[in-house]
Amino acid sequence: MVCVLVVEFLLLKHTPFFWDAVSKSGRASWIYAHGLSEFIVPTELNSGHPPLWVGLLAVFWTIFNKALWSSRLLLLLVNIGVVWQIIVLCKNNFLKTVSALAVFLVCLEPTFLAQTTNLNNDMLLLFFTLLALNSLIKSKSVLFTLASTGLLFTNLRGIYIVIAIAIIHVIYARFKLIEIKKSIYFGYLFAVLTFAVFCYFQYEKLGWFIISQNENYNEHRQSVGLKQILTNIVVYVKIFLEYGRFIIAIFLLPLLFKYLKDKTRNDVRIDRMIVAFFVFVLVYFLGMVPFSNPFGDRYFMICYLLAIVLLVNLIEYYNVRKKIVIYTLIVFMFVIGHFWIYPATLSQSWDSSLAYLNIYNVEEQMEHYINSRGIKPSDIGTRINLNSRDYSEFKMLAETDRYAQFNIETNKFILLSNIENQTKDEELNYVITHWKLVKTYSQLGVFMSLYQKE
């Protein structure tokens, strides 16, 4: 698997930052520009997330060079760490009769695979999550302290994860699913105290902590009404079934029901995975569904991985017939999950499958066409993130190379793509219906279309 990650690094070493990762690059650039002397990013750039990932990016740029390849070198090291922790998780929790090859099935999960290519902080968060869970199971206090602290300093979702780990710890101890060592409690104390110190210094500098005062991010931290909660519940369930993951639910639910119903059967490794899976699902549900922050598939990677480990164990536990057929079907669904493209009117978590990689070839073709026709980018309105190349590709754009803001009334041309989710359905339909299609390029469902006002 490490060889696969190295090949991936070599193939994608010049691939730009994408989606939410672009904003991380912007914060890392600020830290880099200040010579690593300051890690608390100003409010105009700050979403509230702690600075560990962006700080590491700035460090790598300082050591090597501010380039895409050095950014991806950092990601490669994190990816290797995550795979290592997945192997440890499987080794400690797979039934003895499970083949070692089952680890590859876990690593084929579509969103996990997509995130190994994305320069966001989610893989670092997943590394610390797995490290915390593995260290808890094996009662390794030093590693648990490192993991808990890393969780809180990587992403605000790390707070939910630490809470989930603490709940899992209580249940594991209550039902004697792990060996209890009092020294591991120091990990919680150290992590919380160091994070509290960071919050104090951030408050002293910016006047706020955790909840950003940047209006672009503050609106995502608000509580919502019943109607939006119901919508969020539907989205929450949908996310767990996307990109071929529904196949896991089809096989897992009946086996899980059978296991829970059978009081005479139990296995500590299966019990640990059941507890961890349901606690993470519940904590994420309570921490995200009642709020306005849109959540994406990548948020729940730990849940997907635990579900696969649990399914493999239950298949082996009950010696399910035609196991090869089941595993083959799961692999097939995981592969075609990367071709799971919604209609342009539906929002999609584009960084949650490898489908997003198709945009770069499409974008190159479209811009070559625009240049060949002598069309000025300033005459083209779009919501595609093309004006952030100073952060996504480290290319400084001249004003003449910048695209105009999307405005149906003033734009001469409109550039549409299903790779962005901001254009409203009525705007999309109006342009398609009333404007002239000049040129379109597509690749495996990802498209970019240029329209001219008639």
TrEMBL record:
One of its GO terms (molecular function) is pentosyltransferase activity. One of its GO terms (cellular component) is plasma membrane. Keywords: Cell membrane, Glycosyltransferase, Membrane, Transferase, Transmembrane, Transmembrane helix. InterPro entries: LipidA_mod_glycosyltrf_83. It is a multi-pass membrane protein. Its main location: membrane. It is found in: Cell membrane. This is Dolichyl-phosphate-mannose-protein mannosyltransferase. It comes from Winogradskyella eximia.
